[in-house]
Amino acid sequence: MGPSGIQGPQGESGIQGPQGESGPGAIVYDFDLSFGPEDTFNNFNGMMDDYLETDVAMVYIRNEYGWVPLPYYWVGEGDYIDINIYPEIADDGKIWINTIRADGETGSPWNETVTIEFRAVLIMSEFIVYKDSQQTPPYEVLKSQLNLVD
């Protein structure tokens, strides 16, 4: 057998598959929020009926590579400045998405209306406590119970 040849170029990415079902104890919420020249924040209230104060919510933003956890540093291009984007979860489950200028100046960081895709994953508090020992479960147990993918 002769030597191996050089590796060929990487092929094109495949199409995105359908969103899977939420695992037990977790609910996924996809939502869009718009921010305009007067805005520094906006909110999503679609999680309020399911949320308990003891639950955990993880919030993500979609960028060109996929879902990225907040906080997120938005790198401005052209007429845009750099922006810090971070969430706040109110006691009632309302998600506030804050956007602040990274240059330290006050006021809205947006010079035109922009719509951004977000995703929240609500993890029910009943899965946060490891039922066998009443201690926080190891990651592998949460991964199995919530069908998390590394």
Describe the 3D structure.
The protein has 150 residues and is mainly beta. The protein has one domain. Helices cover 5% and strands 35% of the residues. It is built from one helix and eight strands. The protein has one helix at residues 139-146; strands at 26-35, 41-44, 56-63, 66-69, 72-74, 83-89, 95-101, 114-123. It has a four-stranded antiparallel β-sheet with strand order 1-8-3-4, with no helix packed on it. A four-stranded antiparallel β-sheet has the order 2-7-6-5, with no helix packed on it. The longest helix is centred in the C-terminal third of the chain and has 8 residues, at 139-146.
Shape: flat
Helix content: under 10%
Quantity of strands, as a count: 8
The oligomerization state is single chain
In total, how many domains does the architecture comprise? 1
The main pleated sheet reads as: 4 strands, antiparallel
Order of helices and strands: EEEEEEEEH
Given as residue ranges, the uncertain stretches (5+ residues, pLDDT < 50) are none
Roughly what is the average pLDDT, rounded to an integer? 83
Strand order of the largest sheet: 1-8-3-4
Distance between the termini: 38 Å
Q: What is the CA-atom radius of gyration, in angstroms?
A: 20 Å
Helix/sheet category? mainly beta
Tell me the fraction of residues in β-strands, as a range: 35-45%
Number of helices: 1
